[in-house]
Design brief:
- There is one protein chain.
- The protein has 149 residues and is of the alpha+beta class.
- It contains 1 helix and 10 strands; from the N terminus they run αββββββββββ.
- Helix content is 19%, strand content 34%.
- Strands 1-10-9-4-3-2 form a 6-stranded antiparallel β-sheet, with no helix packed on it. Strands 5-6-7-8 form a 4-stranded antiparallel β-sheet, with no helix packed on it.
Length: 149
């Protein structure tokens, strides 16, 4: 019995395998960095539950300020009657940044005309959910905004 088997691959097939492997390696070397570039890196969300949003005299009545709450923006509103209200500034529809409309005295998303009252509830427009409302405390001359719960 002869155990010496010769593997006989024709030269043309060997070159075909070599070219096919080279093309696959080229495609992988182009696609992998492209996909890694397109995919956003995973950034851990800062677990910040309380921030200094502003100083007491910083906001005129019937005005607002955007501040950072962790990795997302928040909005601090100083109402005409001197009350401070804070909520998430990210619209629940498509994630646009909302703003306070002093003329309407409620919160407005300019992207798709979403309207929220000062309690964060949807008045009109496409947003499906209310805004997250934050707790506001005044400590000395600083306005501290905290997540509820």
């Amino acid at each position: 019995m002869n155990n010496n088997k010769e593997v006989n691959i024709p030269r043309r097939s060997f070159i075909d395998y070599l070219l096919g492997g080279s093309i696959l390696a080229l495609i992988a070397s182009v696609l992998y960095p492209t996909i890694k570039f397109i995919m956003p890196p995973k950034v851990p969300e800062a677990s910040q539950s309380s921030v200094k949003a502003a100083k007491v005299g910083e906001l005129a009545p019937n005005s607002y300020k955007i501040f950072r709450m962790g990795t997302k923006p928040g909005i601090l509103i100083h109402t005409e009657d001197g009350k401070f209200i804070a909520m998430s500034a990210v619209c629940t529809h498509l994630g646009c940044i909302i703003q306070y409309r002093p003329d309407m005295q409620h919160v407005w998303c300019a992207c798709h005309n979403g309207h929220f009252d000062l309690n964060g509830k949807v008045i009109s427009g496409p947003p499906p959910l209310p805004l997250e409302v934050f707790q506001v405390n005044i400590v000395g001359d600083e306005i501290i905004v905290s997540k509820k719960g």
